[in-house]
Each structure stands twice: as structure tokens, then as C-alpha cells.
Amino acid sequence: MNMNFKSLYIQMFDENSSYEYKALLNENHIPDEFEYLNKQKLQYNKKVYILSGEYDKKVLFRTKTVRLLIGYCVVEDAKSKPENMHDWLDKLYDIPLDILEEYPIVISDFVVSVDYRRMGYGKYLAEHIIHDVYSDKKISLHAVEDGVFFWDKIGFEYVEGANSVMVINGDGRYA
Q1: Alpha carbons within 13 A on the beta-carbon side of 91
Q2: pLDDT digit string (tens) for 66-102?
Q3: pLDDT, tens digit, 9 for 90 and up, residues 110-145
Q4: What is the three-state SS of 9-57?
């Protein structure tokens, strides 16, 4: 499904916008691969970034503007977790605790709809997160499957001795 979107939007949701988050999910068709969005609890400085696109759809004799969810990203700050959670943070993210200490901003979930992969939408969302929102922060993630190649192209590097863990420094990135 190749859609010509007239505009793209990235919306951020956190614990202060959970009502708007639920409304967005209720108003839109949620693709199967986005099922995890309904399970997200916006707490402990967790943020969900949703990429959507608008396009015009002909409905009977008129044109209606429709918004379609393209992808999402969940970002968490490991340092903002309560002290009693530090014991299992490395299990939660599958990232060793010493790396989480140095690279506390964690991209814990990143999904682009199957219909919109390899079209630049994932790169658009990822670059917004790492260059605009968290440009001065050290970010870590656990890359899986074909995501490894994607994150390498975005600028993340492997951590030696940590299976599939990738990081990017806050230094040297541009906003």
C-alpha cells in the first residue's frame, strides 16, 4: 500500500497526555503490528511517539481527510525508574546495567507498519527522536532482526561484548 500523504505528524504522548493517547487509539484503525500500543502504560517518564500521515479519501461524492498510523516509538529514561526497579532493568531492556547507566535513554520499542517499511518513514521517525528530541542525550537500544542494519545506518554502534546492544552518543550529533 503506497500512500501519498499530504502531511506527516509525529505526536508525543506521556503520563500527562494519556487521555489524548487513548482517544487517538480509539479514533483510528490500529494495525495488528501496533497491538502493543494498547498495552502501553504512560508512566515513569515513558514517552510514546506516533507517526501518522494524512491523505484525502473519496467518500461517495466528497473528499474526506483521513489520518493513518504509520509507526511508533517508545522511549524510556532508565534513570527515572524507581530505585527498586534497578535490579531488573537489564532484564527489562535486555541491555546490561552498566550500559544503561551510561546510556540511560532507551528506545524500547520501534515499529513501522509492514505496508510502510523501506519508504523512509522509519528513518524520519528515528531521526526526529535522536536528532530533534534527544540530540544531547546518550541513547541505547537492543536491536533485533532487520533492525540491526536500520540502526547502523542511523548512526548507532554496537557495544563490544553486549549481544545486539547498540548505542549513540549525545556528542557530535546535530539538531
Answers
A1: 4
A2: 888 899 999 999 888 776 666 667 677 788 888 888 9
A3: 999 988 989 999 999 999 999 999 999 999 999 887
A4: EEEEECHHHHHHHHHHHHHCCCCHHHHHHHHCCCCCCEEEEEEEEEEEE
| β-strand pairing of 165-168 with 62-77 | unpaired
Q: Which string of DSSP letters, residue by residue, matches the chain? A: -----SEEEEEEE-GGGHHHHHHHHHHSPPPGGGGGGGG----TTEEEEEEEEEEEEEETTEEEEEEEEEEEEEEEEGGGS-GGGGGGHHHHHTS-HHHHHHS-EEEEEEEE-GGGTTTTHHHHHHHIIIIIISTTS-EEEE--TTHHHHHHHHT-EEPTTSTTEEEE-STT---
d(CA 89, CA 87): 6
Cell (9 digits) for 159: 557495544
Handedness of CA 83, 106, 94, 40 (dihedral sign): positive
